[in-house]
Structure prediction request, 600 residues.
Amino acid sequence: MNTAMHVLPYLVAVYVFLTGCYGLATSRNLIHAVGCLAVCQSATYVLLLAVGYRDGATAPVFSDIEPGSRPVVDPVVQALTLTDIVVGATVTALLLALVLQIAKRHGTVDPDELRELRG
Amino acid sequence: MNGWILAATVGLGGGGAAALWGVTTGSPGRRVIAQNLTTSAVCPALLLLSQGYGRPAYVDLALLMALLGPVGTLVFARLLADDLADERPSAWGLTWAAAGLAAAVVIALCVAGGPGRAMVKLLVIGALLIGGNVIASRALAGGFREVRGG
Amino acid sequence: MSDAVITVSLLLVAGCATAAVVQRDPARQALVLSVLGAVLAVLFTVLQAPDAGLSQLAVGSALTPLLIMLCVRKVRRRGRTKDGAR
Amino acid sequence: MNRLRLWLLAVGGAGLAALLVAACLDLPAFGGRWHPYGDRAVQASLDRHIANTIASVNFDQRAYDTLGEISILFAAVLGCVVLLREARDEHRAPPEPAEVARPVRRYALLVLPVALVTGLYVIAHGQLSPGGGFQGGVVAATALHLLYLGADYGALERVRPLGVYEASDSLAVCAYLVLGLAGVLAGTAFLANTLLPYGTFNTLSSGGTVPLLNAAVGMEVASAVVVLLAHFLDQAVEIEEEHGS
Prediction:
């Protein structure tokens, strides 16, 4: 069982990323596409945190345990993930604002119809 | 073999799978109820994990879940009020079952943890979780009349 | 024992992500994204990353769904008034 | 045309999937013991008496990167404010009051202060327990919008003066920069954590400039999210098209 465990988190991250990309590519509604982009972003968080994990370790936060008393996981990847989640949310808001502008100017949020309008 | 983590795994697997199945199929009303039940499935699991890993600091996660879970459901109840108006979705059986589960978990942890500041925090989280769950169900069952502008 | 809870969380995240992508209606997708946010927070806690779990909870369960639902409401309302005006 | 596009997506996706899976099989095993950066980051954080290593990595060892993060955040909010402003052919209709059931209104108005205090607690204990400026800011901002959920948008607008939040957003970014420049003025490097004493371990004032940077980021994220939600709510609830346009 544990040989599968060695690679399972990375495979789940790859699967979620590819699913998000599939949704992004075949979306017929721009708001749905932004949701799929959020799924792609969460795949990168899963990969980052899986890389930093250590068996039997705990979080490197020493407010309630003695430093050095227990093995800890890698804090650097957690710092990356933490800031990226919040910044990702504001970038999603910016994308949704763009979708609103498209809906206002072209009256549709379907990417295929947008292509015909320009032709 | 840590019993707390095992309990969290079982609660998570069962509750999570049920919530996921509920939120992907069925009528809009049932989906929002499933989303509401995600909170009351995940929050006790977080409390059990905090006890299982021996890290009182993880309780802040459960506190935040108990606070923001019902807020998420209120967002959906408010902005989907037009779709839910005809349906009046209410699953009071499930709500009380989830509230009972949360109460059981909190009491078990209080007993294990012993008196002190941690127990007060646990009780606050339990109260927020059960209150939020019941109020969110109340909101879904017709909290917002026809909301056009507001 | 901690491997089992990691595996369960990973499978839940994979299921939620698939559900979020397969669901074509944005309003219902916001619901699934809210559940995905909660399950991701649990996965981060299990991978011993409480800070990232807190961040995902704060953003995924209330902020992102609110933004998407407001956007859906604006696009739906614009459609209705435009039809009315025509 | 659609069939060709789907076929192209399938081939590209399969190729990418094969490469990614091959890469995953070569990665070191999940849960391995070899984390060079992690061990050094934990050591550096303990030297500076910071209990939460992640806050130390965010606001001390890689403070310059966090400066980049909050400038991206500020630019995204700026973009939203510009994009979602009221256009010429739109007018602002006052939001109708919404009837909310009594228990829901009482719950929202009860939980609002609790969530606000929790948000501030998460910001303040950023460099001790799990949490920090980023998460606490989002929680505080979301708590404020409980007023919209419990009552209606008019009530929220009366309580939340938008100008103040836009000013505090930019003020917080400037505070972060000034704290960084203070390092330069004191003769060490930009954003170097050598200004203030490190204090005793696991106390609120420990960690030199980390609590200050943490508070600046907390203020910035909170006001940024309030401004974002304000403009989205304006669009969704108030601003309407001129009919016949």
About this structure: The mean pLDDT of chain B is 86.
